[in-house]
Design a protein that fits this description.
The protein has about 200 residues and is an all-alpha fold. The protein has nine helices and no strands. The radius of gyration is 20 Å and the shape is elongated. The N terminus is likely disordered.
């Protein structure tokens, strides 16, 4: 059995997802994942700290995609920075990743420990984007508000894209979601100055 086979990390992720889907997260062991991937337990632990992290590898790369896009965006306005970050994130998830993302989402939603880890990942991502926005001169509280809004758009769009059967890309879904947010924020509440309420 290979001790450090090329592509073993990807095989371990695929094996973990298959087993979590087939028999449940709680009933799946690291040894079962390693065996299905054709590697040793030691190889598993070279890639991942525990079985949960097999589903969350890549979080650091996604975070870097967001923050690098903000840092290098030619935009000069805060919303432009956020839009460029979302466009960059969409490129991280090509259409051929949707079947895997759909299965992963179902497994995560079915297990509280995984859902909690997913939310923690989003909190870390929000904080990283807020820091990147501050580096670009966006002051507080605008940086934090925009970071939260950006990641909310990403989460809502990602969930829609995973379930979508229309063939739209994640970028297209994000654009529609961002437009919906802008429309919602632009609507005046009833009774507000300039509104149409009583």
């Amino acid at each position: 059995m290979a001790r450090w086979a090329p592509g073993s990390g990807e095989r371990l992720q695929a094996a973990a997802l298959e087993l979590f889907d087939e028999q449940g997260y709680d009933r799946t062991t690291v040894s079962q994942i390693a065996q299905r991937a054709g590697v040793t337990d030691r190889t598993f632990f070279r890639h991942f700290a525990d079985k949960r992290e097999a589903l969350f590898a890549g979080s650091e790369r996604l975070q870097a995609v967001f923050t690098d896009a903000v840092a290098h965006s030619p935009a000069t306005d805060p919303l432009g920075l956020a839009a460029d970050a979302l466009r960059a994130a969409a490129g991280f998830f090509p259409a051929d990743r949707r079947p895997w993302a759909r299965r992963r989402a179902a497994v995560v939603e079915a297990h509280p420990a995984l859902a909690e880890r997913e939310q923690l990942k989003m909190v870390v991502l929000v904080n990283a984007v807020a820091a990147a926005l501050r580096e670009r001169g966006v002051p507080e509280p605008a940086a934090s508000l925009l970071a939260h809004s950006t990641i909310t758009v990403f989460q809502v769009a990602f969930g829609t894209w995973v379930a979508d059967e229309s063939g739209r890309t994640l970028g297209e879904v994000q654009q529609a979601t961002l437009a919906a947010l802008r429309s919602t924020l632009g609507a005046r509440p009833r009774g507000a100055p300039g509104g149409t309420g009583r």
